[in-house]
Amino acid sequence: MKLLPIVAASMASLALSGCALPDRPAGQEASSAIVDAPAAATLRTAGGQEYARASATQVGDSIRVRIDALGMPRGSYGAHVHTIGRCDAPDFASAGPHWNPTGQQHGKNNPAGMHKGDLPNLFVGTDGRGSLEINLTGSQLSGGSMPMLDADGAAIVIHERADDYQTDPSGNSGARIACGLFG
Fold first, then answer.
1. How far apart are CA 59 and CA 147, in angstroms?
2. What digits encode the pLDDT tens for the residues 21-40?
């Protein structure tokens, strides 16, 4: 009967080790899925209030962008990656235009669109929280011919209204109300 505890411990160890890593095709290393360390940003209003946190992570040939609202008023907001890593108050115009290395027009519903930096709207509930996550396919966080994080960096901006996903250049999303630098 001494064998039973040894077998049980071995099976538990095997079960736990199987849960530690996600399934992936044979021969694919765990480290090959994520190439670069994530870039992070804290988005603040012109008055310095923290509105959200964002991350950008290279995953294969895509950049995964995530925004988590932390204390914003309830509503729907346009969100975009901008080309310049600057967030000068009060209007955050220093962040430049949307990241658009392929020269498209704005919005997923625009026949001549979309910018690489066009993100889905951020929906915030009555508790001040909301999140969005998107993979920007065919994009590089750093390196390559059109990196998001080039010599002058990149910013992530939240606008005062929802993006209509088609009006160039910013989807009628209004003023820039929060900005953060990816770093």
1. 14
2. 333 333 333 333 444 578 99
Report the CATH superfamily, name and number, of domain 32-181: Superoxide dismutase, copper/zinc binding domain (2.60.40.200)
Q: Where are the domains of the chain?
A: 32-181
Confidence of residue 93 (pLDDT cuts 50, 70, 90): very high
Question: Containing H/E element for 95?
Answer: none
Q: In this structure, is the dihedral angle defined by the CA atoms of residues 173, 55, 89 and 76, taken in order, positive or negative?
A: positive
As a whole number of angstroms, the longest Cα–Cα distance in the chain is 74
Interatomic CA distance for residues 66 and 55, integer angstroms = 5
